[in-house]
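Hey, I'm writing a tutorial for new members on how sequence and structure tokens pair up, and I'd like a real worked example in the thread rather than a made-up one. If someone can provide the structure for the chain below, I'll link this post from the tutorial.
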Amino acid sequence: MDINRKTAYSTLLDIESKKAYSNLTLNHQIRLSRPNSPAFVRELVYGVLERKLTLDHYLDQLVREGIRSLRKQELTILRMGLYQLGYMDSVPEYAGVNESVTLAKKFCRSKAGLVNGVLREYLNRKDTLQLPDRDQDEIRYLSVKYSYAPWIIEKWLKYYNTDFVEQLLEAGNQRPPMTIRVNRLKVTREELAARLEQEGFQTEPCHLYADALSVKGGRLLETEMYRDGLFTPQDESSMLVAEKLDPGQGELIMDVCAAPGGKTTAIAERMGNTGKIIAGDIYTRRLDQVEREAKRLGILSIVTRPWDASRIDPEYIAGADRVLVDAPCSGLGVVRRKPEIKYREYSQEFMELPGKQLAILTASSAYVKPGGTLVYSTCTISPEENEHVVSAFLKENADFSRAESTLLLPNVNGTDGFFICVMKRQGR
């Protein structure tokens, strides 16, 4: 049995059955199974996740009783087989079919014949299978073609025209580049690029963040350079938060929703390991990750502490030079990294997010010194979680004013979707 496809199958089944995060599950399964082509595994896993609704639409036309008759095991194998046949030019048709049948014989033996028949039927009918009729139901058409839950498309169509929404949907299905933040405490961008290229990686300078590189090449996180803390994988949009916060050396910074620590450590690097950064999160176990990253990067200025960011801690009222609120959000800006987000149902939790974000922003603003800076950021592009939250906050807090707002979009900027708003507190 092909170890790469077995690893992909185990990953996808875990995500489907346990609602696990794709990036964490994939990394865990790769470490566990040690496939000989992690790149193939990643392409197959993310491809199936990105196109799940499209694949299911076609499978529903090919399975006699429909896909509702299938268990997760055979459905996962059929999705993998269909994706290889329809989207992976590197996979010969015979291999896509035969390897899928082999998986079925191992994990759902009684369905091996079904898997074989459905995939061969797809090869016979692939040119005649149809998407939903756009004229009859545009939302369903876009949902199936680009594989997003219909409510997301309905939401975006409220704010953007159809052509722009299609571009946004397609951009969310593209594989993001590997971008890394250079640890300026240990190395310059030019020095790191030279060392990476000596080991066979291809690098290009990024354009939004001065200490960033785009890197091509496998097993980057297994290099000695990563273990020695010379860089951190991070999207440019996320790096930009630290730049907009503009921390100064020796200052007191509060990062109230810090875990897993990417922005916290970026702030520390910009401060030259001076001053003090108080990194808080409601979950203690997630703060352990912040501490591990700080240690790997050689950062000494971060102090972690668990707390609920929606509550004011009297100890720090008006004590911080700058406060970052990287608020919990719907994550609709990072679907190209976590495709499973596209299939979440619109729930009470989503409806309550703006209220939760406003509560955190309001409580955290108490820590800002007169003349200090407050930054609010999210990895979503929904105005309800971005502009509406900031506007509601400024309406009730006249001592703060907006200095700058930035909205980054995958189809415009080539980054994750991200919102950053910089506010200043009046006074000296």
